[in-house]
Amino acid sequence: MTLILILASLFTLLLARVPVAFALGGMGLALLILGGFSPLMAPQAVLSTLDGFILLAVPLFLLMANVLLKGGVGADLFAAVNAWVGHWPGGLAVATIISCAIFAAISGSSVATAATIGTVAIPEMINRGYDKRFVYGLLAAGGTLGILIPPSIPMIVYGFITEESVGALFLAGVGPGLALVVLFIAYSMVHARFTGIANHMDAATWETRKAASKRALPSVALAILIIGGIYSGAFTPTEAAAIGFAAALVVTAVVLRSLTWTGLREAIFESMITTVAILLIVAGAKIFGKAITLYRIPQDISALIAQTIETPLAFIIVVAVVLLLMGLVFEALSMVLIMTPVLLPSALGLGFDPIWFGIFMVIMVECALITPPVGLNLYVIQAVARAPMGQVARGVIPFLFLMFACVALLYVWPDLALYIPFKL
After folding, report:
1. pLDDT < 50: residue spans in the chain
2. Torsion angle, CA of 330/69/403/156, rounded to 10 degrees?
3. pLDDT of residue 220
4. What are the CA-CA distances from residue 282 to residues 157, 191, 220, 294 (Å)?
5. Which of 391, 386, 367 is CA-nearest to residue 137?
6. Model pLDDT, residue 183
7. Does 203 reside within a domain?
C-alpha cells in the first residue's frame, strides 16, 4: 500500500508538470520527514552524488558531442558513408544507420546523434522518394544508438549507481549495439526492396570515395581513439571524455576548420544547460532512492518478485513491460535512476549479471526515447523535419519491434554483451 501511495503521488507531481528533478527530490524529502528520518540526509545525498569522479564524464561527453554537432561533422560522415554504400538497395537508409553508429561511438548522446545525422539525412532521403514515416522512424531509432554504442551517458549513471565498472559497461554495449545496427540495416534493405526504392544510383567513383573518406577520417579516428583507449586500459571513461573533448576541438577547429567562435559558445552553453538538468535529476533521484531504501521498498519488491515470479524469463518479461510503460511517462535517465535500485537486487537474486542487466535496461531505455508522449528523440526529429508528431511516432513502430528482437537475442545469448568485456 505504501508503494502505491508513493507512486501515485509521484505520478501526480509529474502530471502536474513539476520538473522531474524537483518531483523526485521533493518526494524523497517528504518521505524522509514523514518516516521520522533526519532531513539532513537529503543534502548529504546530494553532496555525495555531485562529488563523484565518474560523473565528470557527463559534461565532458556532452561538450564533445555539441562541439562535433556545431562543427558539422555529421555531414562529412554521411557523405563518406554514402559514397561507399549509397548504390546499394536502400543505400541512403544504410548510410544513415552507419553514420548514426559512427557518431554514436563519438558522442555518447542520442539527442546529438539524431539531430546531427537527421539534419543531413532527412531532406536527402525524402528527396530520393523514401516514405516520410520510414525516414523519421529510421532517424529517431538510429539516434538511440547514441546511448548503447559506447560511450553512453546512461551507462555512466548506471555504473555510478551500482558501483560497477563503467569501462566494462561500455564494452558490453558494443555487441548489442552492432546487432541493432545489423537489424536496422537489414530492415532498411528489405523495406527498399518491397517499396520499390532501390535508389538505382551509380556507384561513386574512387576519387569521390577517397575525397569523402579523407574528410571524415579525423572523426572516425576520434571514435577509434575513445573506444580503443578504454578497451586497452590506456585511460578511464572519464579521462576518455576529457581526451575526446580536446580531440573534438582539434578536429573541428584545426583540421576541418568548421567550428566558429559562435558555434563554440553555443556548444558550451547548451552543454551547460543539459549538464545542470542531468545532475539535478541525479541528485533528486538520489534523495528519492535513499528514502525508498529506508522504507525498505526495494527489499519488499524483491520479496514480492521472489514469491510470484519463478523463472528468469518471466522476470525479464515483467521488467520489460514495466520499463516500456514507464517510458510513456518518464524520460530515459529518470528510468535508470529510479528503477535500478528497485530492480537490481531481484535481478541478482535470479542470477543475472549486473553488467548484462545494465545493457538490458539501456536497450529498454532506448525504447523509451522513441515512445510518445515523452520520447525525446521524437521531439528532436519533429523539430529537425518540421513534421507532425503522429507521423514521427508511427514511423518508429517497426524499429521498436527490432529493439525487442535484440532484447530477445540478448536473453538467449548473454555473451552478445558479456563476451567482449570478460572473455575477449
Report:
1. none
2. -60
3. 86
4. 8, 40, 32, 18
5. 391
6. 96
7. yes
Domain membership of residue 98 (yes or no) is yes
Residue 269: what pLDDT? 93
How confident is the model at residue 1, as a pLDDT? 62
Which set of grid coordinates corresponds to residue 210?
577517397
Q: Using one digit for the tens of pLDDT, what is the confidence trace for 248-288?
A: 999 999 988 889 999 999 999 988 988 888 888 888 888 88
CA distance 362 to 380: 19
Residue with cell 553514420: 99
The residue assigned the cell 580536446 is: 246
Nearest to 135 by CA among 179, 84, 195, 46: 195
366 domain-assigned? yes
Start-to-end CA span in the chain (Å) = 47
Domain that holds residue 409: 53-422
Quote the CA–CA distance of 87 and 80 in Å, as a whole number.
13
At 200 the pLDDT is 61
Which pLDDT score, from 0 to 100, does residue 343 have? 87
121 part of a folded domain: yes
**Whole-number Å distance between alpha carbons of 353 and 157:** 17
In 10 A of CB 295, how many CB atoms? 18
Q: What value does the CA radius of gyration of the chain take, rounded to a whole number of Å?
A: 21
Specify burial of residue 19 (Cβ count, 10 A radius: 0-12, 13-18, 19+).
middle
DSSP one-letter code for 420: H
pLDDT in tens, 309-327: 878 999 999 889 888 877 7
Calpha distance 106→32 (Å, rounded): 41
- C-alpha cell of residue 315: 522476470
- Listed in sequence order, the residues at least 6 apart from 175 whose beta carbon sits closer than 8 Å to its beta carbon are 415, 416, 417, 419, 420
Count Cβ atoms within 10 A of the Cβ of residue 414 and give its class: 0-12 exposed, 13-18 middle, 19 or more buried: middle
Give the rounded distance of the alpha carbon of 164 from its chain centre.
Answer: 18
Query: So what's the pLDDT on residue 182?
Result: 96
Burial label for 389, CB within 10 Å (0-12, 13-18, 19+), is middle
Q: What is the domain count for the chain?
A: 1
Q: Which residue has the cell 538511440?
A: 144
Which pTM value belongs to this model?
A: 0.86
